[in-house]
Write a structure and sequence with these properties.
By secondary structure, the chain is of the alpha+beta class. The chain has 9 helices and 7 strands; from the N terminus they run αβββαβααβαββαααα. It has a 7-stranded mixed sheet, sandwiched between helices.
Length: 255
Amino acid sequence: MHQLPELNLKDKVSEQEWQTRVDLAACYQLVSHFGWDDLIYTHLSARLPGTDHYLVNAFGLTFDEVTASNLVKVNLAGEIIDDTPFTINPAGFTIHSAIHQVREDAHCVIHLHTNATIAVATQKNGLLPYSQYSMFSLSSLGYHAYEGLAVNDDERVRLQQDLGDKNHLLLVNHGGLTVGPTVGDAFMRMYDLQRACEIQLLMQSSGQENQLVPQPILDNIFAQANVVHSGSTGGQISWPAMLRKAYRINPNFIN
């Protein structure tokens, strides 16, 4: 069996970078645990504060193999910064670097190919206000049309435009994407988006007539969502619990 190289960067990077690595590696464990991963594909990235460098998974590793030390540091040109035996996926560079380039507030970007997000993204009417979970996403949601495999530089501008200042993006025929000022916020936004899509598909398969959330409530949802899932009331509160869960799932991620 092929063994992964043993790396330990804890004492070789700043305390701030190490914490970012730990948070992002934990997020990979959680995505794997919830069954949202896609073999060795899709990516979660995190910008290192005060730099144009971001961390992303090494190409060829499953999400449960990602650790704080084997995350790869790259710049916005897709160049690997540190000495590492790993490479990155060009498709991951196209999508994530495009967003990190224009969204200073988007320190974390999560892009996944789950069945539920692909299915709802590809429906003509997209995400509908069927559940409370959909409220969080609908308050800040964009769509990006499918352009084939995301390896063309000219798609970057359209990705940037379609996301704009929103925090959720459904990629038609492709999947879902969330951003956040912290790993915890981006994770909670993906959790809400995934649950909203799963519930919509269940309701649509029931054969019953479904009741939409009334428009007056929709009109006020952005302010309500800001109270529930941002700053000290969102990812910052839920994330410590998620870190503990990731450690119970696989304590090796912290290496």
